[in-house]
Design brief:
mainly beta; six-stranded mixed beta sheet; elongated; five-stranded antiparallel beta sheet; about 15% helix
Length: about 290
């Protein structure tokens, strides 16, 4: 992103303005903080030629104040005793290393550690005034920073739908709810539709067995299913089909076969289960399957 690149360039300028010592000839970091700087970034060292925004807080001793960073780079675990950590608050800009720059979104203490969640910032949110320059960079000995493993939300079931099936029924109780949506690409003339269609149907069912049979097994079950159908054909509203077939039944050809009734829908189709799951307790043959 352009904002990130500009911010990285600004951080490089800040480090170049004053410097924290003479680097080795091969360009590698030296000193006790060398490994931390390679892992978390170099500490900021603003000079007289750079003016930061008033809400920017420079924290600690750079990478040596960092305990760990989340894979997405948004949660920084800092030493709670590091310099200026007491000035961090929601809304200010934390500047701990060249890669640890962002607006504070959340703070949490865990023992002697401080967990800081940051969000992205633009270069103008960090630097108020400064002189910027660029120079060439050789890639003979690059330093690699791993991007971390990707993460995504996992499906988590907090409680089973079986917990909602309560009561003392005398007979077997059941409920089946089905909802469908159909998309058609073709022609439509009021009560008549023809063309290519895609249909998605979601079904939810639950059943609760009779309490009279509880001595043996009171069955409880829930099921859910999603089914997709694809096809080509036509469809006519059922009341209209009934009127048409009533009229056709009055026609008796003098020769030839009798005119067959018109179907409400016709055409080839293919269907497949997108998702299907059920839970029945107790798991015995007499309880069968939940309605879907």
């Amino acid at each position: 992103m352009p904002g990130r690149r500009l911010l990285a360039a600004a951080v490089a300028v800040l480090l170049a303005l004053t410097g924290c010592g003479s680097p080795r000839a091969d360009g590698r970091a030296t000193g006790p903080g060398g490994e931390a700087e390679l892992r978390y970034g170099a500490a900021p060292a603003p000079g007289d030629g750079v003016t930061l925004q008033p809400d920017v807080v420079i924290v600690g001793q750079g990478g040596r104040s960092v305990r760990s960073v989340s894979a997405d780079g948004l949660i920084w675990r800092l030493d709670a005793a590091a310099r200026n950590t007491d000035r961090l608050a929601r809304g200010v800009v934390m500047f701990v290393t060249g890669r640890g720059v962002g607006r504070v979104l959340d703070l949490a203490e865990e023992g002697s550690d401080l967990l800081v969640t940051i969000g992205p910032v633009d270069i103008t949110e960090v630097v108020r005034d400064g002189s910027f320059a660029s120079r060439g960079l050789t890639l003979d000995d690059p330093v690699v920073y791993p991007a971390g493993e990707p993460s995504w939300a996992q499906e988590t079931r907090r409680s089973s739908l079986l917990n909602s099936l309560t009561g003392v029924p005398v007979g077997v109780m059941g409920l089946l709810i089905r909802h469908g949506v159909r998309f058609t690409v073709g022609i439509s003339a009021f009560l008549f539709t023809a063309g290519v269609y895609f249909e998605l149907t979601t079904s939810y069912g639950s059943t609760l067995g009779s309490a009279l049979g509880a001595a043996y097994a009171q069955c409880r079950g829930v099921g859910i299913g999603v089914r997709a159908r694809f096809g080509v054909g036509y469809r006519i509203l059922e009341p209209v089909v009934q009127v048409i077939n009533k009229f056709l039944s009055l026609l008796t050809p003098s020769r030839g076969p009798r005119i067959p009734p018109v179907a409400a829908a016709a055409g080839p189709s293919w269907s497949s289960d997108v998702y299907r799951n059920e839970e029945v307790i107790p798991d015995v043959a007499v309880c069968g399957h939940a309605p879907r």
